[in-house]
Each structure stands twice: as C-alpha cells, then as structure tokens.
Design a protein that fits this description.
The protein has about 800 residues and is an alpha+beta fold. The protein contains 32 helices and eleven strands.
Length: about 800
Amino acid sequence: MAGTPDRWAEIKAAFEAALERPAAERAALLAASGLDADALAEVRSLLQHHDEATEGDEFLSTPAELDEAGLSASPAPPAASHSGQRLGAWEVVRPLGEGGMGEVFEARRADGSFEGRAAVKLLKRGMDSAAVLQRFALERNALARLSHPHIARLLDAGASGEGLPFFVMEYVDGKPIHEAALGLPLEQRLRLFLQLAAAVAHAHRNLLVHRDLKPGNVLVDREGQVKLLDFGIAKALDPLERADGADGHTTVGGVRPFTPHYASPEQVRGEPVSTATDIYSLGVLLYQMLTGARPTGRHATTPMAAAKSVLEEQPTRPSRLSAQESPDPQWLATRKRLEGDLDNILLKALEKLPERRYASVDAMAADVQAYLDGRPVSARAASVGYLLTKFMQRNRWAVLTAGVGAAGLATALAATVLQGRVAAAAGVLLLAAGLVLALLQARQAQLSRNAAQAASDDARQQLERVKRITSDLLFRYGDTVTLLPGGAQAQEALLRDSAALLEPALQGAPDDLDLAVTMVCALGRLAEIQGNITVARPDSAPAAQATVARALALSDKAWPQRLGDWRLASWTVRVRVVQAQLARRDGRLPDAETTLQRAADQAAESLQRRHGAEGGLYLASGLANVHLNLAQVYEHGNLPSLRRPADALREYRRAEQALRDLLARKADLAELDRKAAPGDTSTESYLVHQIAVIHGGRAQVHLRQADPAAARQEAEAAVALMQQNVQGDPRNVAWRDGLMTESHTLSKALLGLGERAGALQAARCAWDTAQALVADEGPQSKWAHASVQAMLGQQLALALLARLDG
C-alpha cells in the first residue's frame, strides 16, 4: 500500500463503509468501489483482522486481554466442551480459550507417562481449508524448530479421531508480561524483558520471525519465568524453505493478520516484514512494561484507529508521560529514571523506518543490559560528559581511590568533541576508565597474591589487562589527546597516577619484563609531556628528570633480553631525546650530545633486528628525531664558540633524508593510520611537521651566518608546511606552535632583507597565533610566559617600525 494520505483516505473510507454492511454484502460493495487490486487487498486484510479480533483470535485469549488491546470489551465465545476427549495419548481436561483458527484445552497424558499440565491446540471443525491447514502446520513446525527455556515447548502433535490436526505444548500458568511487570522495581522489569529478548533472538537465529508479539503471547509464570507463546503467524526466513525463490530475509506482502497496537508500520502497510518487525513490537512491549501505557494509539477504540496511530503518531518520549497517562502506581518515581538512556533505547526500537531501528534483538538487549550495568548505551550519542558520568557511576570508589585526574581528562576530551572527534574521545576515555579499574584490581590481587593460587592467577590476568590497555593508550590514542588544547595536562595526570599504581605491581614482580617494558612506555610518554617545551608547564623540568631516570633504569635492565622489542627500543630512544633536551635547556651541551649519540646507537642496533612495518616505522622515525635534536644541539650553543653550524646542517640533512624516506613508504603509512585512533593525526602530517622544523632550524643557522636570503628560503618552506598542517587540523597545539615559531623566523629573515611589509605580516602571524594559544592553554602555558611575549612583541614592534620608516 502506498503510504500517501490520499491513498490511506480511500482505503479508510472503503473499510469503514464495509464495516457498516453485513459480511455477506461486503464483497459486492468492494467490487463496486473502484479501488485497484492492492487497495482492495488492504481493505480485505483490515476487515479480516477486525473480524478475527472481535472473535478473539488470540492464543490463550481472555476478555481482559482483548480489552487491554483496545479492540473489544466483549468476552471471547466459550469453546465447546471436549472434557474427556482423547487426542492421541492426551485427554482433554477443560477448555482454555478459542481463536478464529483453533481451540485450546488443558490436557493431561492419558497413559500416565507425563505428569503435570499441557495445553492442546486443536483445529476447529470447518476450518480445514488448505490455507488454514497450512498455517496450522507452519505454527507446529515453527515450534518444533525451537528449543529455548523462554519459549513454550512443543510436546507432541497428531490428529484427532475426526482427522483434525492438533499439537501439544507445555502449559503456562501465568500473567501477560505487562501485567506481571506492573508494580515491580525497574530493574526487575528490564530483566523480564531480557528473558523475552533472548527468546525472540533464539527464534531469529532459527530463521523465524514471530510477527505477533503482544502481552497475550508473552506470559510470566509463578516463578518469574517468561514464556513466549503462539507462533501461529510466524514466518520462516530460511531461503531454502521458500518455494517462490524470494529473498528469505523478508516475507512477502499480502493479506495476513496482525495486532494493530503491537504491529510495526510495515506490517500495517502490508509491506514485507523482517526481524526488524519483531524489534518494533519488542519496543512497544518494553514501553508498556516500563510505563503501563502504549507508545501510540492510547485512545484508539477500533483496529482502524490503532493501525492509523502506528503509521501517523510519533511515540511519546516515555519520561514525558503524565501521571494521568500511566496506570503505574510507581510512575512518578519511575519516570525520572527513564530519562536519557531508557528513553533513547525505546525510541530507537520504535523508529518508523526499519533501517533506523536496532540491527538485531541482541543489539537491543545489549543496550538494556548496558543500562543495568551502568555502562554507556549505543542508542545515545557518545559525548564525553555522558561517558565520564557512566564510568563514575559504575566505579565511584575506583574514581575516588585512584585519583586519575578525571576532571582534567574530561576537559581535554571536551576539546576533542569540539573538533568533531567524538569517537577518539570515547576511545580514550573508555581506555582510561578501563585502565583505572584494571590497575585497582591488579593492586588488590597483588596484595593477596600469596594467599592462594587463585589470587595469584587473578593478579596475572589483571596485569595482562593493564599492559594491553596501557599499550593502546600510548600507541593508539597517545597523540590524540596530547596535541589538543589542555590535553597534555590531562594525559600527564593520567599517566602519572597510572605509573604510581603500576609501581607496587612491578616491585612485587621484579622479573616480569613485560611489565617493565609497559612501565618504560608509560614513563616515556609521561617524560615527553613533562619535558616538552611546547606543551609542558615551565616548572615541570625536575619532574621530567625524575621520570627519565626511572624509565632509563628500567630500560637498562630489560634491554639485553628485549632488544628485539621495538616498543622498548622506540621509547628508550624517545626518553633519551627528552634527557638531551633537558640537558640542552640547562646549557649542558656535551651531556646532550653524548645522550643523543647513545640514543642513535640504540636505535641503529634495534633496527638491525627483524621488525614488522609498524616497528620499523617507529624506530626509523625515532632515529630521524635523534638527528634533528643533534642538529639543534650544534646550532643552539649558548656561546658562539660552542656553535657548530656545519655539523648542524649535516644532522639536519640526515634527519630530512630519513623523514623523506619514511614519507615514500605510502602503503606502510596508510596501514599505520588505519590502526590509529579515530580522528587521530595522520602519520604523514607528523612527518611533514618534522620536515618543517628542519627547514626552520636551517633558517636559524643561516641567520646566524648572516645569510638572510638563504634563511628566507628555508623559513618560507617551513611556514608553508606548517600552514598546510594547521589548515588540516586547526586545533592541533604542536602545529600552531610550529607556525608561530617559523613565522617569527621568517619575519627576522625578511627584516634582514629589508622587506618590511612581508616582515610585518609574518610577525603579526606569529603574534596572533601565540595569543590564540594563550587563550586556549591559559596563563600557565609557555605562550603566556614573559620571555615569549617579549620576544614576539619586540619582533612585531621592529617589523612595524621598519614599515613606518619605509
């Protein structure tokens, strides 16, 4: 059926006109209506459903059940008495209910081999048409394919003495699930729903769609166990069972019964149905279990009105239902708890378009379980505040005890979200959360490791988890946070506290080289943050020196046996670079040179071992960085007599060649980026940044040699590369700092050449970039430091004066 308003109006008018006529006159009326075949099929479908609903076509139906559905307040006609009748090995005890197709009786095993009660469904006399026999057989076959604790079991099948087919099911003495849920605590209602979801998921895995999920078909017994009933209109999805060759994942349209209040929009329209149909019906049931009301059609009194509401009404957000709209006696307390996650879970399941619903019942159940566990749900956007709140709710004691700097981490990740990197922020936060908990569990297990072997095993398992999560934080998500505004301080807090919690575990297992390597990596990242002139606080040098000393002590111990471990080699080289930078900052140039030469030797030694592409890239990049730092040592001597420009230019050439060789490895770089955190800086951008730094370094050498023309050429190349990176990632702190530095150098070169307008433009770029960084990073950052401000201010003033003089 086309879903246009005009089309629906025609069908509605024909349906309502037919309802006013006796059944015998309807065919002639419809024939004279002028509707096409599809519309006539839809009207007949609605009429058939109306008749079946009025007659009580529900398995184990009761008057209250029909009234609940909003279809009829009249009781179902009583089934004929068959007490004492034998149906195979079964004897009828009493009637239970009657539907349009069959009658249901309580029965017992006549030969005494089966104790307890059973339910027998017997085809009605006069209903033995080919279509009804096929539908009855399909229901029996559907049950025969299913074996699940929350699906009523098929016990037997056969034919009566009159040749009418019957099948025997386990008897369920219970209430419809929405009635059983009324008055229960929210958590118990959700656990009842998870039982139902498990049953429906089992049916889907067996290639069956139920297609008629409603309270009367989902009972809860006296033990609180859910039982799914009545696969009378279930449809097989197995393509091998489809004689027409149609796609087995959907069912063809046409005239078929459904219950309007619980049917999906595609069912009401007569379109093909799939597992998404059951997901919609599960959403209606869960909505009713949690609120006591239906999501749509709460005032509908006819099947037509109910069907129309499914198509046209948007479900009310559960937490916004008023006390008058919900019969739940606990509604005022329950409503507030539905806000947020449960609202979103229900609305996702109730999407009008099948493709917007959950992809599977298992996915929906996973979100419900996540809510119960206090974990984030997929139906809600993964904002940083949401993820952090969930983690803290789940691990209040852990957060308070560990002191991992959650507030700082949230601040940094908020910046990630502002850049549209929600996936990266979510990944970092969840890894950090997992690391906190794993560290605490590892520490607890370590304290009791001598108590029993089980405790020792638990300690080892938790330490393995710590290593794995730490590795991801360092190698997959490390730069994602560090290079964001405020990110370095947040990650410093995370790594500092993590290392403090790892230390007791390392002391308890001094021979665990894997743990030692993990600690070296963690301390290496911490040392880079503490010792980085770009992002570190001005007073962080003493902390950086202590971190470097501890990391190198652990590395020296592990190095002889773990030389082939590229992570250890890579981070050892990086730690030595930090050590050299600290020495250069203190004016200890010979110490810096010695440290860097040792780092180069270790990188070269490790590169001789067999490493994969990833390890080789990290080590080669580390060696290039060593050459770059050596060049800076030779360039920045604190006295002219200590400067070695020729050596500086040689090391810059070595570093640039190594970086360009890495840039040529396109496939390896692409693979490295594929493994990176979502939204992380590309490896190529990092290599381009390093090459820009080399151009800027050479410009400084040429300026000191009084060669402004050569300096200008190098500085312009550096600024162009820095601008390229900033345009690609405008919030990256390192890229912006590089643009500030190289613009400052270009301004000096242009002043030396007398190009005053260009000098002023470059100086203003450096000044504006620094002011923006101060605004982002705060008054404690290096860009707010008096010496930086004085240098940039002086350069800007000189460029301005030169232009005025011109």
